[in-house]
């Protein structure tokens, strides 16, 4: 998608749509929103919709970072406590590794 050829109101609409789509537990959409709209929000000459696009890009970046931190925390907690949780952890696993180490 060539984001630069779209008119400014369309850019704002797409940025807003991807931001709200991220709330459907799709943090990858927020990451895409940051990648696609960063140039328009921070590197282009000022235009009327730019301040709103900036806001959505910043919020999308914060949302993405929060999801990454939460995912890494869950991975660390689960991997270090899996054997101690017994059958409960086994029910949460797709593949059950052999051994306890």
UniProtKB/TrEMBL annotation:
Localization, UniProt: Membrane
Main location: membrane
One GO cellular component, as annotated: gamma-secretase complex
InterPro entries: Gamma_Secretase_Asp_P_PEN2
Segments traversing the membrane: 17-36, 56-77
Pfam families: PEN-2
Transmembrane helix among keywords: yes
GO BP field: Notch receptor processing; Notch signaling pathway
Key words of the record: Membrane, Notch signaling pathway, Transmembrane, Transmembrane helix
Keyword match Membrane: yes
Membrane topology (UniProt): Multi-pass membrane protein
Family, similarity comment: Belongs to the PEN-2 family.
Protein's name in the database: Gamma-secretase subunit PEN-2
Species of origin: Drosophila pseudoobscura pseudoobscura
């Amino acid at each position: 998608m060539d984001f630069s050829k779209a008119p400014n109101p369309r850019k704002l609409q797409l940025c807003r749509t991807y931001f709200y789509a991220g709330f459907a537990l799709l943090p990858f959409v927020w990451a895409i929103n940051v990648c696609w709209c960063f140039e328009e929000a921070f590197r282009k000459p000022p235009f009327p919709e730019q301040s709103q696009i900036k806001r959505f890009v910043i919020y999308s970046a914060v949302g993405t970072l929060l999801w990454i931190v939460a995912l890494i925390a869950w991975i660390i907690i689960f991997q270090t406590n899996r054997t101690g949780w017994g059958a409960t952890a086994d029910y949460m696993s797709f593949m059950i590794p052999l051994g306890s180490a």
